[in-house]
């Protein structure tokens, strides 16, 4: 075999190896990108699961808080009603022991006492309703924030996965394109060698 034939064979083999190398490198890079796309999709699922768990917790917490507010409000109202009954009974008893008839000023004092307790009971009901409204609002706000952050995390992860899948396809195509270019360039050089002979 002549030196020229060895040179041309070496050039052809080198060109072919370079082309195969470009394809293999592109395939490995594309494989890594596809793997990272799968990781991003799994991350999106994890965001969904974490969001659902957080939202369930917020809902339960809100329900517990609201039940506690109702119970406390009912207990406070019951305490005020007992205190009203006890105080008005004590006033009635004191007036009776003193021989005062329940008319005029004594009756007005008792009516005023009862009215004050009714105001306190109304204020207690209002505070209970206000607490419930604040708790409901806090729960709804927490749920909205959780849903937003969950949706954002899912969207970002799925977007990244889509980008990586497209990148993997482009990388493979570019690998084949690079291999084709290498083969054409190598073939051109070999053809040029023969043309100059």
Outline the fold blueprint:
Blueprint: H1 3-98, H2 105-196
Helix pairs in contact: 1-2
Describe the structure.
The chain has 197 residues and is an all-alpha fold. It has one domain (3-196). It is 95% helix and 0% strand. The chain is built from two helices and no strands. The chain has helices spanning 3-98, 105-196. Helix 1 packs antiparallel against helix 2. The radius of gyration is 42 Å and the shape is rod-shaped. 10% of the residues are buried.
Quick one: biggest sheet? Answer: none
Order of helices and strands: HH
| Tally of individual domains | 1
- Mean pLDDT across all residues, rounded? 93
The total of beta strands comes to: 0
Radius of gyration (CA) equals 42 Å
Oligomeric category = single chain
Low-confidence stretches: none
- Computed structural class: mainly alpha
Strand fraction: under 5%
**Cα-to-Cα separation, first versus last residue:** 17 Å
Please give the share of residues in helix: over 70%
Could you say which overall geometry the principal axes of the C-alpha atoms support? rod-shaped
Q: Treating each run of at least 4 consecutive H or I residues as one helix, how many helices? A: 2
Label this structure with key terms.
197 residues, mainly alpha, 2 helices, 95% helix, rod-shaped
